[in-house]
Write a structure and sequence with these properties.
The chain has two domains: 6-117, Aminopeptidase (3-Layer(aba) Sandwich), CATH 3.40.630.30; 144-274, Gcn5-related N-acetyltransferase (GNAT) (Aminopeptidase, 3-Layer(aba) Sandwich). Helix content is 35%, strand content 31%. It is built from nine helices and twelve strands. Strands 1-2-3-4-5-12-6-11-10-9-8-7 form a twelve-stranded mixed beta sheet, with helices on both faces.
Length: 282
């Protein structure tokens, strides 16, 4: 309701069901937050931030949820909730990146930036989704879950991808923390790889997973395997496996990376929305 006063507070353990129901109304756009809650609960250092809820003071209804921290994401029902959560996010010392639907993030920034926070880099991205498995190619026996013994094989590749994406090398900024987080991801069965001739040929990370959606990041194809269809076959095969347990798979790709667009479209993905990712100036 226009002009309705908002009440913002940190969410507490035990409120997961209500929050997941709220986020579940738009599962494609909220999979990142919902996945973290399912994995870690609402209150955990593993979330690398704090979940906040925004309630209408008149009705008491939950109208906004945000994870504010290293990665900040928002889901709101009203402009007032967006404004209130943006104000709550101001001054967060651990904030690194803000990401979400383009129009919503631009509105969020119009409030958030008033505190003097500067953006270092802004990227427009495409949200792609796959809902139906692509017809089977010949099964690739090498595509499997990574093991902790392979941590040092995949960590440098993941770090290189981070540098290419945002210009920051996590192995220089926080090497121990980066390795610890990636080891945890492997331990949870969230990193898929293929090794050919002793080299990493393909990699894909499950960043978040719910029964409604799986969110992929860190998709890598070895330069020696590019242009041969191998990466596409790996991604299709992984898609068939993931779609057997979730309704859709989604990922983000930089708007300027036309080569990647073609790769994902051929693997069965379709454009669903435009996103904005803002990296903050420390």
């Amino acid at each position: 309701m226009a002009g309705d006063a908002m009440s913002v507070r940190a969410l507490c353990q035990g409120e997961e069901t209500e929050v997941l129901d709220f986020l579940g109304a738009r599962p494609l756009h909220t999979v990142y937050m919902a996945g973290f809650i399912r994995d870690n609960g609402l209150v955990s250092p593993l979330n690398r931030g704090t979940f906040y809820g925004c309630q209408s003071s008149s009705s008491g209804e939950l109208v906004g949820v945000s994870l504010i921290g290293h990665v900040t994401q928002i889901e709101t029902r009203t402009p007032e909730a967006l404004s209130a959560l943006a104000c709550a996010a101001q001054g967060c010392p651990s904030a690194h990146v803000i990401m979400g639907e383009q129009e919503k993030i631009r509105a969020f920034w119009s409030y958030y930036g008033e505190a003097g926070q500067a953006m270092r880099l802004a990227c427009r991205e495409l949200l792609l989704e796959q809902c139906w498995p692509v017809e089977a190619d010949e099964e690739l026996p090498d595509l499997r879950l990574a093991t902790l013994a392979e941590l040092e094989r995949v960590v440098p590749v993941q770090a290189e991808m981070a540098v290419a994406e945002c210009g920051v090398n996590p192995l220089k900024v926080d090497p121990a923390g980066f390795r610890e987080r990636y080891a945890r991801r492997i331990g949870r069965g969230r990193v898929w790889i293929s090794i050919k001739d002793g080299k990493l040929a393909f990699k894909a990370d499950i960043m978040a997973e719910t029964p409604q959606a799986v969110y992929l990041e860190g998709i890598y194809v070895n330069p020696l395997e590019r242009g041969k269809g191998y990466g596409r076959r790996c991604l299709r095969q992984l898609g068939r496996r993931l779609l057997s347990r979730s309704r859709s798979i989604c990922l983000l790709v930089n708007e300027k990376n036309s080569e990647a667009h073609s790769f994902y479209y051929r693997a069965g993905y379709k454009l669903r929305s435009y996103y904005e990712t803002i990296y903050l100036q420390k």
